[in-house]
Amino acid sequence: MAMRRAAQQSIQALGSRVSQSKQLHQATPGSKKIVGVFYKAGEYAEKNPNFVGCVERGLGIRDWLESQGHQYIVTDDKEGPNCELEKHIPDLHVLITTPFHPAYVTAERIKKAKNLQLLLTAGIGSDHIDLKAAAGAGLTVAEVTGSNVVSVAEDELMRILILVRNFLPGHHQVIKGEWDVAAIAYRAYDLEGKTIGTVGAGRIGKLLLQRLKPFNCNLLYHDRLKMEPELEQHTGAKFEEDLDAMLPKCDVVVINAPLTEKTRGLFDKQRIAKCKKGVLIVNNARGAIMDTQAVADACASGHIAGYSGDVWNPQPAPKDHPWRYMPNQAMTPHISGTTIDGQLRYAAGVKDMLDRYFKGEDFPPQNYIVKEGMAPIWSGTSNFICESCYAPHNLERKWLRPRLDCGSQCSPRLIRFDLLRVGTH
Amino acid sequence: MAMRRAAQQSIQALGSRVSQSKQLHQATPGSKKIVGVFYKAGEYAEKNPNFVGCVERGLGIRDWLESQGHQYIVTDDKEGPNCELEKHIPDLHVLITTPFHPAYVTAERIKKAKNLQLLLTAGIGSDHIDLKAAAGAGLTVAEVTGSNVVSVAEDELMRILILVRNFLPGHHQVIKGEWDVAAIAYRAYDLEGKTIGTVGAGRIGKLLLQRLKPFNCNLLYHDRLKMEPELEQHTGAKFEEDLDAMLPKCDVVVINAPLTEKTRGLFDKQRIAKCKKGVLIVNNARGAIMDTQAVADACASGHIAGYSGDVWNPQPAPKDHPWRYMPNQAMTPHISGTTIDGQLRYAAGVKDMLDRYFKGEDFPPQNYIVKEGMAPIWSGTSNFICESCYAPHNLERKWLRPRLDCGSQCSPRLIRFDLLRVGTH
Residues at site: Important for catalytic activity (chains A, B) (predicted)? Predict the structure, then answer.
């Protein structure tokens, strides 16, 4: 297999891959070693036969893989030089990872993985993969695009309602044996009539806007481009070109942007100050879009009246993460994309891609993050567009090799963060 | 004033009220004594200028009332023979109460309240008023119909999502310094594709169905009559004539029925057993519709996989109420109808009715529970239809005097519970 990759890299250097693509993408004949890294379910594994995303069930594809003569290793042990994953790095062909219990696929691991051809994300996202190294090694990186966009959009609407209606203080009263309606009611509101702004209106943002429609809110969205007129008309959402002009209008701000170098720390002290006093913020995108301490400080001062999300920086959140202790938080661990329904969808998507890989067929195009060392870009822009959050906006899609083809369009840094996808789930 | 009521009762006995209605309904000239009983806000009163539903703000109508020469007493002290309310019973003209901190208007209190003409509910519901006694005394009882139906419908959708997506265990992990995705995920689902059935599709039920539409669920409703075809078509909700035939189909059951003698204890052990194993139940209607212990037992056994609501039996829930301790509960105190938006609406509605009362004008017809001793019934049925939960179904509305006009149509018991309204909020 090392030979195969070396050959692949030579062809790549020639810049004449298109006609070879199908052949290159095909798995070499014979048994493959496939490794999956998932979270452990322990006592919970037996409680639900559809709980396929855990290490105990390994996406439910073991019998299918083994019946075809492939080897399938699953583990949750992914850290340090002596972990189970590390033992298999030298000879695995396919590595399946998940954002919910990420195995970090570093440049070093990619270098050691001489047989590696395919990195699959069970779910959406590739934060945990060094995409530049993967592209440089001619690998294919793919996710199950769309597998949990509905899951996340539903979860966002739940969090909006939990904050607007001040659910948690009431629930805590119940647990503590109390009954004090006033202590809840003085800051409980209806969602109706409020102004909700989404920062990003890609797939998840659009699904959220559709679900918000019957609540009779004022809906705003900030994105780089306007959405399709039909959808804008259907949802009644108004386009806001300037983020800083939208924020002071919003009672609720929802983050639906991917993590890129442009969005990292986007909500720092200054930007939070531009929000309305008493703003509610929902962020199921990525924790690093927020300045952790600035959010905690604004919750303490009351400038942010409520903050809810399932994403943290870092993950898992350490015991002393300030968001665990700030007032009016409605946080959970990273969970919204790994509902049982989401798991069944991404397990089916991974199985489908493995089947295509064995047969030498292309994957659904939207699933590719890196295709045999090439990254998708859209012509007409040098910036990355995340498919899990931003629609392609009808721009022509092209496959380019980072560092080789981009030339003056972008620097390697831009390739890393703006052309390659940093998904949100 | 005692004279006035005596006169009124005499006219009533003659059964010739219609032509007299306007005159009778008019307040006698001069200063009125108006008493309002609300919950105390304490330290929370100053935290929100729109927190008008508390005793400290008294619906924000003091200046307006006093500028017209009326006396306005507000208190939260409503229990026992020496409470503040009791002192004012003998000479008050108008008593304003709320379901969130109910002052029980018993037959005994009505007998003592010789000047009483008008009982207003700040909110919706008259559980706490002895309607038979009020009707017998020729009083008018009215609520602000519709003032918080949106509040309750939104709250129900929030609770559905909290249960379906298994929000609370994740949040408790955050508080306890833990991070265990599997312990949440094994029973977290998307709402999409699930079957939701509402028991009752009146105002709140319909608003809920409209808000559920974009979630792509299978929507069912049980009611005595089918809803308007346009709304059925718009929401895609299917009519289920037989409750026991609907229940086994539902992943989520939402109670949107009023409390009547027919619905009291409707969900007992036998009926809960008819629900799908693992059913989720949301009940913001009335606690007494459920058999308290049967719900707790079914949650303990896992037959009910989650139960959420804001209504209890009794209220306030005592410290040892079993619903505080049962697994997978997402309970709060009775709060969904008293959001700040709801408070502003019912405060405006009470002010409007007082203004009409002073001027001798009729109230909006849907607000009447008892109109000068007469209860509304709809011809063609001997059963009560609650306007806060059941639409009038285009039946002709008539005003009848209980015990006098109903004759063979119904017994006094039916008048009490089926003809007189027992509202849900």
Answer: 286, 334
Task: List C-alpha distances in Å: B63 to B34, B68, B72, B95, B120.
Answer: 13, 9, 9, 18, 19
A340/B185 Cβ within 8 A: yes
Helical ranges in B76-129 per DSSP H: 84-88, 107-112
Q: Which of B309, B330, B324 is nearest to B425 (CA)?
A: B309
Rama region for B74: left / alpha / beta (φ>0; ψ in -120 to 50; rest): beta
3-state secondary structure of A263: coil
Of the partner residues B186, B336, B338, the one whose CB lies closest to the CB of residue A51: B186
Question: What is the pLDDT, as a whole number, of residue A28?
Answer: 66
For the stretch A214-246, pLDDT in tens is: 999 999 999 988 988 999 999 999 999 999 999
What's the whole-number mean pLDDT along residues B277-302? Answer: 97
3-state class of B201 per DSSP?
coil
Beta-bridge mates of residue B368: B142
Cite the beta strand spans of A298-366 per DSSP E.
304-309
**Which residue out of A46, A74, A174 would a mutagenesis test of the B interface target, given it has the greatest number of B Cβ atoms within 10 Å?**
A174
pLDDT score for A135 = 86
Shortest Cα–Cα distance, B114 to chain A (Å): 32
A292: Cβ contacts below 8 Å, ≥ 6 apart:
A313, A321, A322, A323
From chain B residues 33-52, the ones with a CB under 8 A of any chain A CB are 39-42, 44-45, 47-48, 51
What residues of B are in contact with residue A323 (Cβ under 8 Å)?
A: 174
Nearest-CA distance B374 → chain A (Å)? 33
Query: Per the CB < 8 Å rule, is B47 touching A334?
Result: no
Flag whether A261 is marked binding. yes
Kindly give the pairing relationship between strand B304-309 and strand B279-283.
Answer: parallel
For residues B77 and B389, the model is more confident at B77
Structure tokens at B22: 């306007």
- Tokens 């009483």 locate to B116
Residue type, A241: E
Q: Is B80 at the interface with chain A, CB within 8 A? A: no
Around Cβ A28, how many Cβ atoms within 10 Å? 12
- Report the residue of B76, B209, B313, B339 to disrupt the A interface, i.e. the one with the largest count of A CBs within 10 Å: B339
Chain B neighbors of A315, CB-CB under 8 A: 179
Could you identify the residue written with the tokens 């519901």?
B125
Range of lowest pLDDT (A97-111, A112-126, B129-143, B369-383): B369-383
Nearest to B323 by CA among B353, B292, B345: B292
B101 and chain A: CB distance < 8 Å anywhere?
A: yes
Tokens of B337: 């109808």
B73 neighbors B35 (Cβ within 8 angstroms): yes
Instruction: Say whether pLDDT at B130 is over 80.
Output: yes
CB neighbours of B120 closer than 8 A, spacing ≥ 6?
Answer: B94, B95, B96, B97, B141, B142, B143, B350, B353, B354
Put simply, whether A189 touches B (Cβ < 8 Å) is yes
Kindly tell me if the per-residue pLDDT of B296 is higher than 90.
yes
Using a pLDDT cut of 90, give the percent of chain B over it: 71
For residues A285 and A259, the answer to whether their CB atoms sit within 8 Å is yes
Active site residue A148: yes
Check B42 against A182: CB less than 8 A apart: yes
Give me the mean pLDDT over the B195-211 stretch. 96
pLDDT tens digits, B281-292: 999 999 999 999
Scanning the structure block, which residue is given the tokens 């929030």? B158
Catalytic residues of B: 148, 286, 315, 334
Smallest CA–CA distance from A172 into chain B, residue = B332
For residue A228, give Cα distances in angstroms to A199, A367, B228: 17, 22, 33
Q: Number of residue pairs across A and B with CB atoms under 8 Å?
A: 207
